[in-house]
Design the sequence.
């Protein structure tokens, strides 16, 4: 999970051209539902510190990815 988060936040992804980001978007289409499923399992059945840490990482990944996507769409609209 840390790898996915770092990949999203790296400057090479954040500032790449839209055409060059296609593979990452394809990967995230697969990973995001899996992360959501895992988050819901942990949220419903586990109250440990490790569970909370994993949930936090999943939320960070979702937030980072949506933030990057929203900024890119705004940039395209404003051009």
Sequence:
């Amino acid at each position: 999970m840390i790898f996915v988060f770092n990949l999203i936040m790296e400057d090479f992804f954040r500032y790449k051209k839209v055409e060059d980001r296609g593979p990452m978007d394809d990967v995230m289409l697969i990973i995001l539902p899996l992360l959501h499923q895992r988050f819901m399992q942990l949220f419903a059945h586990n109250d440990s510190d490790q569970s909370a840490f994993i949930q936090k990482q999943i939320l960070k990944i979702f937030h980072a990815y949506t933030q990057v996507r929203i900024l890119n769409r705004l940039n395209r609209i404003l051009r």
Q: What stands out?
A: The CA atoms of residues 39 and 59 lie 9 Å apart. The helical segments are 2-9, 11-14, 22-45, 49-78.
